[in-house]
Write a structure and sequence with these properties.
Serine Threonine Protein Phosphatase 5, Tetratricopeptide repeat; mainly alpha; single chain; elongated; 31 helices; 543 residues
């Protein structure tokens, strides 16, 4: 067999190299390595082979071999950026920072005009906390490129961190001179002055910025923050009004301002008034932003301004129909207005969007109860009750007690009592259920001893509640204990019951039993004037 010519050897090596790459790409590293090592034996054109071997060994986690082969590739061809870049990556990943720096410097030498490489090296120096080297490199870059946002801002931050006042100021002034419309540099400069106690200078910087970009909301926000901290509330409030009204101002920052005023509103009446004004202004400026409208809705809701709360929640559910919490708040707002037709409508809409969420069935059923559509209420509540998971005892108890109310209204007392009993099994200390169940029993004049125990318990759990005291007084009346009944009904009157027709009528009934007909008529007349007494009240007034 004759000698193989150099050309034939090169062709054979090229074929092996192509096959090796195919094997590597398919994940067969062993065959790839075998072919690449065969090529190395020829000692010709081996730098690419070392490069590929380094990448394979890196994938396999064989650190020493990966480094050895990339070192060979770089030594053979230091001007190949791919080899040098790979070595930089390896040495950084393996935390060989000294070797990494040497490789960065080799690349800088080989590619002296590549500014991106210089910036990357400066980032390496910053991450290594070699700030003097980073600054020296930044100076070189600035000489080549002039003032730039990335380089000079980094210089500003480094000098600031090193507490070099003069050089820090020089860098930020350069940035302002070259980028006069950039608010952030004025803000950084003013903050720097404030940190050094130079308040007047900071204010001058803000005013300088406003001369260039009048009414810039970023600058106005900084000024407003300063005035607020300096207890110059009127100046601060005027600026916040401008900022919130400006639709170009960042929504995230607006939310931050609004949240601040929500906190301030809890202790400061002036701040409360402004918070309300700002909420409305923000929502008007961003009529389709669900986050702003949700904040405004929540603020109005907790202020008990349910009419305005509805307006904002309606926007939220239109823009983002899957916002579960907004639907809850919207339905509750209509409940509190009260507008039971709208409450029913919105609860039904929510049921279609969240068909497995029992809460909306509960609210829909409640709305039907309030509208005296008791059969409809029962149908909805029964369906929703089946969706409640066993662990949610509170919601289960609410469904059961509301069903008890609905069945009571229809005169189906056996079913009503059954549901109240089940509700109390879930929540034995629910004083509302204890009171209502006791009152219904007293109305029917049945199981009065049981009613008395439940009512007594409800008053212990929730004292000084007029309606609870009225229930207990009425049960005592039914039991013939008129003196104690009067005492409890008078307590009820003192706790707000004087505005209730029912409580006044009960007082009249007790006074009649005690033989005090004039007092009885006095309270029956009050009940009649208020309206809403029993069907027997007109007859009592003629006695």
């Amino acid at each position: 067999m004759g000698l193989i010519s150099p050309k034939e050897k090169a062709i054979a090596n090229d074929k092996k190299f192509i096959d090796a790459i195919k094997f590597k790409n398919s994940g067969d590293y062993e065959k790839s390595v075998e072919l690449l090592k065969d090529i190395l034996k020829s000692n010709e054109g081996t730098a690419p082979v070392h490069f590929e071997l380094s990448k394979i060994y890196e994938e396999k986690g064989e650190k020493e071999k990966a480094l050895s082969h990339i070192n060979s590739a770089v030594n053979l061809n230091p001007k190949n950026k791919w080899y040098v870049n790979h070595k930089i990556g390896l040495t950084r990943n393996y935390a060989l920072f000294e070797e990494c720096e040497k490789t960065y410097l080799l690349r800088k030498k080989m590619f002296p005009s590549n500014t991106d490489y210089d910036i990357e090296l400066s980032d390496f120096y910053i991450s290594s906390k070699k700030y003097s080297k980073a600054l020296k490199l930044y100076e070189e870059i600035e000489d080549k490129m002039g003032v730039s946002e990335e380089i000079n801002y980094n210089k500003f931050l480094i000098y600031k961190g090193l507490d070099d006042y003069e050089k820090t100021e020089a860098e930020i002034k350069k940035l302002i001179a070259v980028f006069p419309a950039e608010s952030k540099y004025y803000i950084e400069y003013a903050d720097f002055k404030l940190e050094h106690g130079e308040v007047q200078k900071a204010l001058e910087i803000y005013n300088q910025a406003l001369e260039v970009t009048p009414d810039d909301p970023l600058i106005l926000n900084e000024l407003a923050n300063y005035y607020l901290k300096d207890h110059q509330q009127e100046k601060a409030f005027d600026l916040y009004r401008k900022i919130i009204k400006d639709p170009s101002f960042n929504i995230t920052e607006k939310r931050h301002i609004l949240r601040r005023f929500i906190r301030l509103a809890e202790a400061n009446n002036d701040a409360y008034k402004l918070a309300k004004e700002l909420m409305e202004s923000a929502a008007n400026s961003h009529p389709y932003d669900q986050s702003i409208n949700l904040m405004a809705g929540d603020f109005m809701f907790y202020d008990r301004n349910y009419k305005d709360a509805v307006k904002f929640y309606e926007v939220v559910v239109d823009v983002k129909p899957n916002n579960y919490n907004a639907w809850i708040q919207l339905v509750l707002s209509y409940y509190n207005l009260p507008d039971y037709n709208k409450m029913s409508e919105k609860a039904s809409d929510a049921m279609e969007l969240f068909p497995t969420q029992p809460t909306f069935y509960f609210y829909s059923g409640m709305a039907a109860v309030q509208a005296k559509e008791f059969e409809k209420a029962i149908e909805i509540l029964e369906e929703g009750n089946d969706l409640v998971v066993g662990a949610d005892k509170k919601l289960k108890a609410q469904f059961l007690s509301t069903l008890g109310d609905a069945y009571h209204a229809l005169g189906r007392h056996e079913k009503s009592d059954e549901y109240f009993e089940l509700s109390l099994e879930e929540e034995p200390n629910n004083y509302y259920v204890l009171n209502n169940y006791a009152y219904y029993l007293s109305e029917r004049n049945v199981e009065l001893d049981k009613a008395k125990k439940m009512s007594e318990k409800s008053n212990l759990l929730n004292p000084d509640e007029a309606s609870f005291q009225d229930t207990y007084g009425w049960i005592l009346y039914q039991l013939g204990d008129y003196e104690n009944a009067l005492n409890w009904l008078k307590k009820s009157e003192l706790n707000g019951g004087k505005e209730s027709a029912v409580i006044n009528e009960h007082l009249g009934d007790v006074y009649k039993k005690l033989g005090k007909l004039e007092m009885a008529k006095k309270y029956w007349n009050i009940a009649n004037e208020i309206g809403g007494g029993s069907d027997d009240l007109p007859k009592k007034l003629t006695e």
